[in-house]
Amino acid sequence: MPGARKPQQRIRRKKADNTSKPADDGTIRLNKYISNSGMCSRREADMHISIGSVTVNGKVIVEMGYKVKPEDEVRFDGARVQPEKKLYVLLNKPKGFATTSSDAKGKTVMDLVANAGGGIRPIGRLGRSSTGLLLFTNDDIIVQKFTNSKTGVDRLFHVHLDKNLTFDHLKAIRDGIKVDGEMIQVSEVSYIKGASKNEVGIKIKNTGNGILRKLFDHLKYDLIKSDCVMIGSLTKKDLPRSRWRHLTELELNSIKMM
Questions:
Q1: Which of 29, 51, 80 is the last residue of a domain?
Q2: Is the pLDDT of residue 156 over 80?
Q3: Which of 54-63, 64-73, 139-148, 158-167 has the highest mean predicted lDDT (pLDDT)?
Q4: Residue 212 burial (CB count, 10 A)
Q5: Within this chain, do residues 109 and 185 fall inside the same structural domain, yes or no?
Q6: Which of 32, 50, 80 is the last residue of a domain?
Q7: How many CB atoms neighbour CB 171 within 10 A?
Q8: pLDDT of residue 103
Q9: Total domains present in the chain
Q10: What is the pLDDT of residues 19-42, one digit of tens each?
Q11: Measured between alpha carbons, how far is residue 48 from residues 29, 42, 134, 250 in Å?
């Protein structure tokens, strides 16, 4: 029937316009693969794909939304497209730097990792007055792993409050607290051994530390200081404040297996 083709066309179009997030099998949309190489923008890549200028493993591809594997041979006007090298950078953030890729707010964490490699961006946020570990990457799969609210990677914070945290409040945080209709769940919370009870260790999967300020504001505490001391198994060992380093292969594999 003539009218039966239109719904099918709409379904195919919807799939083609779907998000460009990497699939679980490691594939990536062809236009993003080309864009990541720095040869042109994603929109320009779409145009070149549509006119038959792109081949994958020797075959001309004109399909929008076509996905390739990292090991595929992609050529653009006959030239081999080299995929963007994946980078993983760990920074020990000092105070006074905003966690943003924009320079509109003065000093940013991007100034501190300017020589680490192109295309990286911070995963999550640390407030301008907060300190500690911050991870940067250009690997979308790792970004998704961190930002997934159910399977994200734990971050351990050492926080200082304006007064001692009561045991009842400690227990309430451990059990989960609803704030403004949102349930805030932590993985662990405890007093810092050998310190006063206004210092607390709190482990949470959320990628921003703003959730901590929201939590303690709700309980009528002022968050004086917040320092991210661990991301998964990554620590600040041998990483002075304001310095950065690339992750080792062992560290990267550990994160991927979390």
A1: 80
A2: yes
A3: 158-167
A4: 21
A5: yes
A6: 80
A7: 10
A8: 56
A9: 2
A10: 444 445 678 899 888 887 767 788
A11: 14, 10, 37, 39
